Amino acid sequence: MRIVVCMKRTASGELNPFDACAYEAALQIPDSEVILLSMGPAKTEEMLSNLTRLGAQGAYLLCDSVFAGADTLATAYVLSLAIKKLSPDLVICGRQTIDGDTAQTGPSLSVAAGLSLITNVMRIKNTEGSLVCETRDLGTQMVDYPALITVERINHLRLPSIRSKKGIVIRWTAKDIGADENRCGMKGSPTKVLASFQNEEGKRKCKFIEAAEIQDAIKQGLEKEKQRLKPMKASTMKLQKVWIVGEAPKTFAESISDDITVIHKADFTNDDGNYREFVERFVEYIKERKPEVILWGSDAWSKAVAPQVAALLQTGLCADCTALETDGEKLFMYRPAFSGNIVAKIVCITKPQMATVRTLETDSADIICALGKGAKHVVRDIQAIVQQKNDLADKDNGPRWDIAASRLAVDAEMLPYDKQIGITGKSVNPPVYIAVGISGAVHHISGMKQSGIVIAINSDKKAPIFDYSDYGIVGNIEDILEGEWL
To answer: How high is the pLDDT of residue 438?
Structure first.
């Protein structure tokens, strides 16, 4: 089997961690010929050369000044030309990059290169005949070759052997792959960044308390009405013909329009996992009705389908927007970037203007206890406590508890992926959120900032998590458990 793995060099000069997982997944497929493919500046060549030591037969670097500044649509276009030239059976991409956090390039590339698609792969179950994969949210899926899959952070990239040698890295320019320069780089990108700001959203005034007071803080949170997404600040001017796919983006739509149409998936397909059927039928409907704006939720299905629709329509798509506004003609979209530290203001110069918006996942828990890497020694203790709390809740109809995790905790394999909170995880808003051993990276804050009362437990009083908490307890979680305060 001939496999192409798409790689990206991050702004810090390292291999994107999701792409590292994609590479390892390819190397684990028996009797495969693995080829690396990247688009980037000349300095990317050294990274690719070093990576060939792990087992790839070679690497290709798409390097040309006309490729610079590409958004996901322009990136997918350039990659697709190289893919067609390499003619693989399978293309493997990381789910997303940690620079952009969009998760759009893979699905867009599948359309541009004419490949079957499976996203959010947790395990490749079978490669004989057809490709069968277990996904994070949509169960087991099967597609025919040639195919493209995007993988989650499901493994660890092996180290090179001492005697391994570097392979050859071949550079291709726009001319080498027959690229139309008008569809490359900034010139071919329909989304444009207008401005960027430091992300200060979600900060709270923290009151430091003793461990013995934690139950009072929890009680206070439970007595408050469960918070939902704050109403979006409505724009004075309004857009016409705004479509939303499902009900989830409705709050965002209402901030920019009074003319909203809800699109139901069932009207275009009978199978939520059948991307291509929905995409093709929906695209024809869009061309016929010509909406100004289409908004999608942040669920796995929407984030896989929206980039495919954008690729077929050759229009822009902004990912994971946290706010929208309009001047009555253009849609201005705000989204976090670079792990949430920056908020970018983006505009789409093509129609329809499209965006996925950051929506909350349904969660029945009243209290979420989220564990960071600092809680690695007490995971089982916390799990036992949560189970005891829920056993009591079953008897006296008390508050329900659940466990969550930071990205570092998931990377350390403390808890499974479906427990991750943050930009690359899920967003929640329980009445009470207890952050245990979590440093407080903006990446994590974005997924829990809509919680009611936030209680942080950390041994470092200067930990950023306290800036986003209502109550703070400085100390070790082990001592708090020993005192039975939780």
So the answer is: 95
